[in-house]
Input
Amino acid sequence: MQHFSIAIDGPAGAGKSTIAKAAAERLGFIYVDTGAMYRAMALYFLRQGIDPAAEEEISASCGQADVTIRYQDGVQQVILNGENVSALIREEAVGNMASATSVYLPVREKLVQLQKQLAAQADVVMDGRDIGTCVLPDAQVKIYLTASVAERARRRFLELEKKGQEADLEAIKEDIRQRDYRDMHRENSPLVQAEDALYLDTSEMTISQVVEEILAIAASKGANVPS
Output
């Protein structure tokens, strides 16, 4: 039996995780946050005190980090070497380390293998940077989800403000620009729009509007979309 896959790619802060999670819930699919897997690996590197530029050390350490995904009461849990790190991987330092170290081939190869296994076992909505181009090239639905730098920075600023954390909007914009550049220019699996992916700019769309758009596309490809 061939399972149904929805691949959502796009730059940092485009809302991929929020949209993918909501679409998966509506469809009854499993949501796979690949970014969370890279962040878990990055957390391991941070804990080891490894410099993100130390490619050989990063590559050698991959084999010592086991990253898995489990579901508890329908909620995704990210497990690093037996520890639930779901609450720890959203810190800015972890995100920056993930962006810097995901360029290394051994890191990508280890995590892509697990991602492919997940998609082979169930209907999934998977989001990341290279899902439609590398991880799930045969996905029935491919979306390239994006938004302007200004809008992505605004969303991140409001998110941090809501958590009671101090934030500098201009600094966030610059960080996003730098992450975009790294993601789009890395040697291994750079962020690009798959040729058969739908380009979806969410700058002026609500979450519900984006989700409905993706569900309509999935239905047109044969997915059973509950009313």
